[in-house]
Amino acid sequence: MGNRSAGDADGLLAGRGPGAGTPGTPGAAAALAGGVLLIGAVLAGNALVCASVAAERALQTPTNYFIVSLAAADLLLALLVLPLFVYSEVQGGVWLFSPGLCDALMAMDVMLCTASIFNLCAISVDRFVAVAVPLSYNRQGGGGRQLLLIGATWLLSAAVAAPVLCGLNDARGRDPAVCRLEDRDYVVYSSVCSFFLPCPLMLLLYWATFRGLRRWEAARRAKLHGRTPRRPSGPGPPGPPPPEVTPDDTPDATPRPLPPAADAAAPPPADPAEPPRQPRKRRRAFLLCWTPFFVVHITRALCPACPVPPRLVSAVTWLGYVNSALNPLIYTVFNAEFRAVFRKALRLCC
């Protein structure tokens, strides 16, 4: 990975050059107001998610460990990244602090964005394992696998962001008034690692999980149909019960619990804290918010001469950060248990 200057190919924080706005103008005032609202929404919503899982035993499920990890990434983003991003936007994209603080900001931005999508990938891995090897999944309960996956997501995210803190961003001729990722190769590398590789993997795993669930449902229906006794045809009350037969003569029509080996194709019971629509909505929100951002920034890194308006760069960055405020809304709308806990918490606060 070379150390070429990225020039105008701004990094993972947009609006770092002329055109992002001018202090004292309506655009700067709008950026300040929007930034304050966004930070408040991210902090309030995700803090409520974490508090709800901590306080409500019904929400303390292995799947919700991933939700808490996602909320933690959003909270850190609101505390460590968004205030400086909004301040820079209000200042017209001019960086007024030290280059070292800029590098720390870039590294935190890369790590937290990567942690968010890696957590979504971890959820897809967890769901796939639950369907592919359900008996093993059920035997290894207690959330140990989930905690291991969460730890791996954060370690990998930190590894992706580490080069920025190790001096990669300290390019010769660097403009101290502009905060950006200075190495164009690293912009491509981090975009591939953070988005363009994990997203297809996540979608593939969810597709495989969906197919596995459909096959299991078809097999379950066929098994139930084959074990269900047929009622006598024709009008009139049902006849006398059939004579007793041995299992060697005909299948026993009396429903009995299946032995463990016969239930090998059945996935674990659905997690009440993770209804089917919730992960789908969360994936869609993430992809809709972050796909424009990564497409724009990898385009600028690969094609520095391509005309990309600074306003577009700023807009897609704001759109990406808005995703951090959407997850609590998704939980509230599509999860009855989260909705009930949220109502209880709001009644206590009000």
UniProtKB/TrEMBL annotation:
Question: Where is the protein situated, by its record's location annotation?
Answer: Cell membrane
TM stretches of this protein: 28-53, 65-86, 106-135, 147-166, 186-207, 285-303, 315-334
Region feature Disordered, mapped onto this chain: 224-279
Source species, domain of life: Eukaryota
Q: How is this protein positioned relative to the membrane?
A: Multi-pass membrane protein
Gene3D superfamilies xref list: Rhodopsin 7-helix transmembrane proteins (1.20.1070.10)
MF terms from GO for this chain are: dopamine binding; dopamine neurotransmitter receptor activity, coupled via Gi/Go; epinephrine binding; G protein-coupled receptor activity; identical protein binding; metal ion binding; norepinephrine binding; SH3 domain binding
Key words of the record: Biological rhythms, Cell membrane, Disulfide bond, G-protein coupled receptor, Glycoprotein, Lipoprotein, Membrane, Metal-binding, Palmitate, Receptor, Sodium, Transducer, Transmembrane, Transmembrane helix
Ranges where the G-protein coupled receptors family 1 profile domain occurs:
45-331
One GO CC annotation: plasma membrane
What InterPro entries does this protein map onto?
Answer: Dopamine_D4_rcpt, Dopamine_rcpt, GPCR_Rhodpsn, GPCR_Rhodpsn_7TM
The family annotation for this protein states: Belongs to the G-protein coupled receptor 1 family.
Q: How does it assemble?
A: Forms homo- and heterooligomers with DRD2. D4.7 allele exhibits higher affinity for homodimers compared to DRD2 heterodimers, while alleles D42. and 4.4 have similar affinities for both. The interaction with DRD2 may modulate agonist-induced downstream signaling. Interacts with CLIC6. Interacts with GPRASP1. May interact with ADORA2A. Interacts with KLHL12.
The free-text function statement in the UniProt record for this protein reads:
Dopamine receptor responsible for neuronal signaling in the mesolimbic system of the brain, an area of the brain that regulates emotion and complex behavior. Activated by dopamine, but also by epinephrine and norepinephrine, and by numerous synthetic agonists and drugs. Agonist binding triggers signaling via G proteins that inhibit adenylyl cyclase. Modulates the circadian rhythm of contrast sensitivity by regulating the rhythmic expression of NPAS2 in the retinal ganglion cells.
Designated name of the protein: D(4) dopamine receptor
Q: Which organism is it from?
A: Canis lupus familiaris (Dog)
Query: Mind giving the lineage of the organism this protein is from?
Result: Eukaryota, Metazoa, Chordata, Craniata, Vertebrata
Q: What is the gene name?
A: DRD4
